[in-house]
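Backbone-to-sequence.
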């Protein structure tokens, strides 16, 4: 089963996020799904058994479309069934980052799962993000971080944070993460340009910025939400309209933008500290436009989490979601190695 690929054209979401004088682009930056079944070799994709394991799974596969590395699959949990085990037929399928910047990534990961005899069961982690130069009216992201650290600004919700930066005459923060153990959503604000200078350049992301009209003479910041439990409903608190999140709709870029707006409303709400007791009564700092007040209700349906193995899966979601990070980049194989493996596995 094959899906056509083309580079996604970024939305012009200036009116929704950054105001009429600046631009922003939205993206999916992590897509991993829980697929159930016994993995069999694909009829279309080349499935490379790395002969390696992870801390939780016995098997680690790399999936190639022709000579292009497109996804990874971990399968066969070491501890399965029983009181503390995971579902024995659990597989985690993850698209590599570059694939997320092509058209219809959700359809693609479903196709990869089905072509390996794996039934998509639910997403286990989805990261959505918005990239921009500055907040509304030129308000700088590092100014927000410094204001939060000095208590001039307060944040609603989770205030457990990790911050990174450097001191060059003065402190310059370039990263802050808000999270707590087993949280449904982690929030990151960071200088993406700095990260790519220091860690790894991703040309497909730079291309997206250029298409989206970002100012490439300035640093680009990213606000990212790592959704570890993508089973939730969200409600507009003004109109009462309620929707259930369906990850399959994320092939539509407008749906990506809508979910980001919901996440901003819930998880990126900052207030000016006036010294009163309740943070929610402090004046809101308007960082983006088009954001509506929403509430989110996460779902643990008994019809789905009907056994102990599935409940263990939910409890260990964040740990499992980091499993694929153990894939060594050095496992990228040469074309000759792939040809040899293809001939061996296809008995050519």
């Amino acid at each position: 089963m094959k899906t056509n690929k083309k580079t996604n054209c970024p939305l012009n979401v200036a009116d929704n996020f950054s105001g009429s004088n600046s631009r922003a682009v939205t993206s999916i930056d992590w897509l991993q799904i829980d697929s159930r079944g016994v993995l069999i070799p694909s009829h279309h994709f080349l499935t490379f058994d790395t002969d390696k394991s992870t801390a939780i799974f016995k098997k680690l596969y790399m999936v190639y479309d022709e000579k292009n590395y497109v996804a990874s699959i971990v399968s066969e949990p070491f501890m399965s069934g029983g009181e503390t085990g995971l579902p024995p037929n659990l597989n985690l399928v993850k698209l590599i980052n570059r694939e997320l910047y092509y058209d219809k990534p959700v359809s693609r990961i479903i196709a990869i799962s089905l072509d390996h005899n794996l039934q998509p069961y639910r997403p286990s982690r989805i990261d959505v993000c918005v990239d921009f130069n500055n907040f509304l009216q030129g308000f700088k992201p590092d100014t927000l971080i410094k204001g939060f650290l000095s208590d001039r600004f307060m944040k609603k919700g989770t205030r457990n944070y990790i911050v990174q930066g450097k001191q060059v005459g003065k402190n310059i923060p370039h990263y802050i993460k808000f999270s707590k153990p087993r949280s449904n959503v982690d929030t990151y604000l960071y200088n993406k340009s700095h990260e790519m200078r220091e860690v790894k350049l991703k040309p497909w992301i730079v291309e997206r910025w250029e298409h989206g009209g970002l100012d490439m003479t300035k640093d680009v910041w990213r606000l990212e939400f790592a959704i570890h439990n993508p089973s939730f409903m969200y409600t507009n608190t003004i109109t009462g309209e309620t929707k259930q999140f369906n990850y399959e709709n994320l092939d539509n870029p407008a749906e990506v933008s809508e979910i980001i707006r919901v996440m901003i409303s819930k998880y990126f709400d900052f207030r000016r500290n006036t010294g009163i007791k309740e943070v929610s009564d402090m004046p809101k700092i308007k960082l983006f436009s088009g954001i509506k007040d929403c509430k989110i209700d996460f779902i643990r349906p008994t019809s789905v989490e009907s056994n102990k193995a599935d409940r263990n899966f939910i409890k260990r979601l964040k740990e499992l979601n980091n499993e694929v990070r153990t894939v060594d980049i050095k496992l990228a194989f040469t074309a000759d190695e792939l040809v040899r493996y293809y001939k061996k596995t296809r008995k050519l």
